[in-house]
Design goal:
Elements lengths: L2 E6 L12 H10 L3 E6 L12 E6 L7 H14 L2 E2 L2 H7 L4 H7 L8 E3 L13 E5 L9 E3 L4 H13 L4 E5 L3 H5 L1 E7 L2 E8 L20 E2 L4 H12 L10 E8 L5 E7 L14 H12 L3
Parallel strand pairs: 1-2, 1-3, 3-4
Antiparallel strand pairs: 5-8, 6-7, 6-8, 9-10, 9-12, 10-11, 12-13
Helix pairs in contact: 1-8, 2-3
Length: 292
């Protein structure tokens, strides 16, 4: 009976925002695993007693990135951590998009502005500013060219907090066709979903956003599958090292799919929408815990 810990965040007095966790633990237990959830920052947790620590919903990491990465390295040295520590370290910094683009993977065009960089902003089209390390649309906002003053204040706030900013064109295909999330587990496509646009014009960068509006099941096209698989294949060390991954795609200006994000750290699985995937996921996790 493998011992498995699903690492999550501590919600304090609020209910957990992870809708997948309870059902996934129940599925693992029904399949014969000794599974439980643990807060990643629990000082009393003995991670070495587990055969596998699975990063699931460590959704406060973006505010504590250095602390989180230190935890990742520590657990990876004690037991099997998935995804592996070096993959997580690579993935929490969205400058990986530049590496994917360099490997020939279609990606959303991205410019990076670290602290101390002159705020050169687009003047001919809408654009998005967000941090290179972030989750849940934290510190993300959409701007028109005439909103340069408020966009500059946004950059100044991020730079004051030591954050590298990303500037991307706002791709209109998001409004027409949404974002598509392709979930992979054990190297195979598990299921796919589509959601509406997250960033609404005029919403302040520090406002709460609905991360997955109008979520629905989706059947990916051949072109979407091809881009997603190319993105996973470009991960340092190879896709075979990954237990899970979510590839978020949007349509580029040419109408073809391109990578908006490659979620290899703590992607939500949308199991309320895809309950049929729970047994398959549980089996993949148990096989990983047994070293298969």
């Amino acid at each position: 009976m493998p011992r498995i810990a699903l690492a999550t965040y501590d919600p304090g007095t609020e209910p957990s925002r992870d809708p997948d966790l309870r059902g996934l633990i129940a599925e693992l237990r029904a399949a014969g695993a000794d599974a439980e959830s643990r807060y990643w920052d629990d000082p009393d947790a003995d991670w070495a007693v587990y055969d596998l620590v699975l990063i699931r919903s460590t959704w406060d990491y973006a505010w504590r990135t250095a602390e989180f990465l230190a935890w990742v390295d520590r657990v990876d040295a004690l037991t099997r951590l998935l995804n592996p520590a070096d993959v997580v370290r690579w993935n929490v910094d969205k400058r990986y998009l530049g590496e994917l683009a360099g490997a020939g993977v279609p990606t959303v065009p991205t410019r990076y502005l670290p602290p101390g960089t002159e705020p050169v902003l687009p003047t001919a089209h809408e654009y998005v500013i967000k941090p290179a390390s972030g989750a849940g649309a934290r510190y993300a906002a959409r701007y028109a060219p005439e909103e340069r003053e408020v966009a500059t204040r946004h950059l100044e706030r991020m730079h004051a907090e030591g954050l590298t900013a990303m500037v991307q064109p706002y791709l209109r295909g998001i409004d027409r066709h949404g974002e598509r999330a392709l979930h992979f587990f054990g190297g195979r496509l598990l299921h796919a979903s589509r959601k509406g646009a997250v960033l609404v014009s005029g919403t302040p960068f520090d406002a709460e956003k609905t991360a997955h509006p109008s979520l629905e099941k989706w059947q990916p096209t051949d072109a979407e599958l091809d881009v997603a698989q190319r993105a996973l294949a470009a991960v340092p060390g190879g896709a075979e090292r990954l237990l899970y991954g979510r590839v978020d795609l949007v349509d580029g200006e040419d109408g073809q799919p391109c990578v908006m994000e490659l979620e290899l750290t703590e992607p939500q699985l949308f199991l309320d929408l895809h309950p049929e995937s729970r047994p398959r996921i549980a089996q993949f996790i148990i096989e990983a815990a047994k070293g298969s």
